[in-house]
Amino acid sequence: MEEQQLSFEEAMERLELIVGRLENGDVPLETAIELFQEGMKLSQLCGSKLEEVERKIEVLIEGESGLQKKPFAPANEDRGE
């Protein structure tokens, strides 16, 4: 399956599988390198999908309230303001 066609959840599931195999340490070096490269691509894909969702949330917040655009921030980062 092409990485760009994976959903966020599918990419995360595959990434977790890769991390598990690499942590196990029982894969040949060449396989480990291939898994690492695939894992990096999946990590970048997940990051870009999260950024896309973040931009959509900003637009929705701006559109619903008519207020100044506020970037999305996880609840733990919003404390203390």
Automatic annotation (TrEMBL):
It catalyses: Exonucleolytic cleavage in either 5'- to 3'- or 3'- to 5'-direction to yield nucleoside 5'-phosphates. One of its GO terms (biological process) is DNA catabolic process. Keywords: Cytoplasm, Exonuclease, Hydrolase, Nuclease. The keyword Ligase does not apply. Signal peptide: none annotated. GO terms for molecular function: exodeoxyribonuclease VII activity. One of its GO terms (cellular component) is cytosol. SUPFAM superfamilies: XseB-like. Pfam families: Exonuc_VII_S. InterPro entries: Exonuc_VII_S, Exonuc_VII_ssu_sf. It is found in: Cytoplasm. Bidirectionally degrades single-stranded DNA into large acid-insoluble oligonucleotides, which are then degraded further into small acid-soluble oligonucleotides. NCBIfam families: xseB. PANTHER family: EXODEOXYRIBONUCLEASE 7 SMALL SUBUNIT. Belongs to the XseB family. Heterooligomer composed of large and small subunits. This is Exodeoxyribonuclease 7 small subunit.
